[in-house]
Amino acid sequence: MAPVQAxxxxxxxxxxxxxxxxxxxxxxxxxxxxxxxxxxxxxxLLWYLRDVLRLTGTKYGDEHGGNGADLVLLDGKAxxxxxxxxxxxxxxxxxxxxxxxxxxxxxHPLQQAFIDEDAIGCGYCTPGWLIAGVDLLRRxxxxxxxxxxxxxxxxxxxxxxxxxxxxxxxxxxxxxxx
Length: 178
Ligand code: FES
Hints:
By secondary structure, the chain is an alpha+beta fold. The longest helix is centred in the last third of the chain and has 14 residues, at 126-139. It folds into two domains: 26-98, Beta-grasp domain (Ubiquitin-like (UB roll), Roll); 109-171, DNA polymerase, domain 1, CATH 1.10.150. 26% of the residues lie in helices and 12% in strands. It has a five-stranded mixed beta sheet with strand order 2-1-5-3-4, covered by helices on one side. The protein starts with 25 loop residues before the first strand and ends in a 7-residue tail after the last helix. The structure holds FE2/S2 (inorganic) cluster. FE2/S2 (inorganic) cluster is lined by residues 120-126, 155-157, 159. Residues 120-126, 155-157, 159 line the site of FE2/S2 (inorganic) cluster.
């Protein structure tokens, strides 16, 4: 049997394969996915999340993150996304409210506790409360009202007392129970 001749493949522009340079950028992880930001390194993380990744759960509160609406977990700690430029995020892991639920869609116990206690009004502040609450429960598994009142979050709909109950319900392991 005659040997099979290897076909010469086209090279150069005829190959149809374009060489792509790897652009420099800031590599980070958001909700377990890997991204490279190649834009302005001074862009606040909040705009990157909302305008580039279309993760709109994290909200604008004010220019200094004073009311907690823009909190995300940055390497596990609650941090204001408006005050964090992309330049500071190389190698960091960000978790937004969209990343709190498990991969199978089951809610984080604190999300469930917010539903149980009806701790949601218009919802604008809720993502920030959830992130702050997750961080608080990590630092202090059984927080009291004073601990919760020290969080930077504000609710213009007057949900603070229900938020307190929700955080304490999650701490007690009673999310999803009557
Ligand atoms: S639920 Fe409306 S601002 Fe808190």
